[in-house]
Amino acid sequence: MSVTLYVCTTCRMGRADPAEGPRPGARLLAALQAAGAPDGVRIRPVECLSACDHGCNIALAGPGRWSYVYRGLDPDRDVPDILAGVAAYARTPDGLVPWRERPVIFRKQSLARIPPMESPE
Amino acid sequence: MSVTLYVCTTCRMGRADPAEGPRPGARLLAALQAAGAPDGVRIRPVECLSACDHGCNIALAGPGRWSYVYRGLDPDRDVPDILAGVAAYARTPDGLVPWRERPVIFRKQSLARIPPMESPE
Fold first, then answer.
1. Do residues A112 and B111 touch, judged by C-beta distance below 8 A?
2. What is the dihedral of CA B20, B25, B29, B30, to 10 degrees?
3. A61–B1: do the CB atoms touch at under 8 Å?
């Protein structure tokens, strides 16, 4: 189990809190969990990825891999593409999925990426 | 040596390429290196943090720590504050610096953060 998909559960998609029911970020987490994690991926909730203007936000990370943060995701629309993108990420050794193999949402809605952790000196 | 400060050397601060001389991101790297890394911090260049609309960008990372990406930094203005913020980050076990101890640029110009890497299952 090498790759983690973090889902911000406090994201509100730039809107006021819903009058009832969970926030969009919590709905996105539930929808991803219901669809099921791809092989080698675990799904984890996180409270705030510090990108609140851009929600719903997710992050991908894994040992030896570049980490990515994606923004502007929609729990009612993007679950299949997120899971396809995470599965492709999990199949790489370094997190670098060829551009054309990334879902369009990952090509267009990347917020930032961070290099793989180096071994301590 | 546990904390890495990544500096995007390709950042252009949203401008056209300079007519001559290095890009703002490369100038930021050089200025940080000239000032000297705080204890426990290594400074590393990186080509693109995928946040090109927001440069100059940096990232902080370290084992067991939250990673942070900061945006909108100015090589002519922000070097002392960046180094103070990275030093504070390096003094924490988890990367979570108390809010009031963060430089203003880190409070206002956070682009995203990613949780610490979990141990493999």
1. yes
2. 10
3. no
Strand locations in A1-121 (E): 3-8, 41-46, 58-61, 67-70, 110-114
Return the residue in B111, B114, B117, B121 with the most chain A beta carbons within 10 A, the one to mutate for interface testing.
B114
Tens of pLDDT, residue by residue over B66-106, are: 999 999 999 999 999 999 999 999 999 999 999 999 999 99
Report the candidate in B51, B52, B29, B26 with the shortest Cα–Cα distance to residue B42.
B29
Q: What is the ipTM of this complex?
A: 0.90
What residues 32-51 of chain A have any CB closer than 8 A to a CB of chain B? 42, 44, 46, 48-51
- Interchain CB contact of B1 with A (< 8 Å): yes
What does the DSSP 8-state code read for residue B101?
G
Give the model confidence (pLDDT) of A70-108 as tens digits. Answer: 999 999 999 999 999 999 999 999 999 999 999 999 999
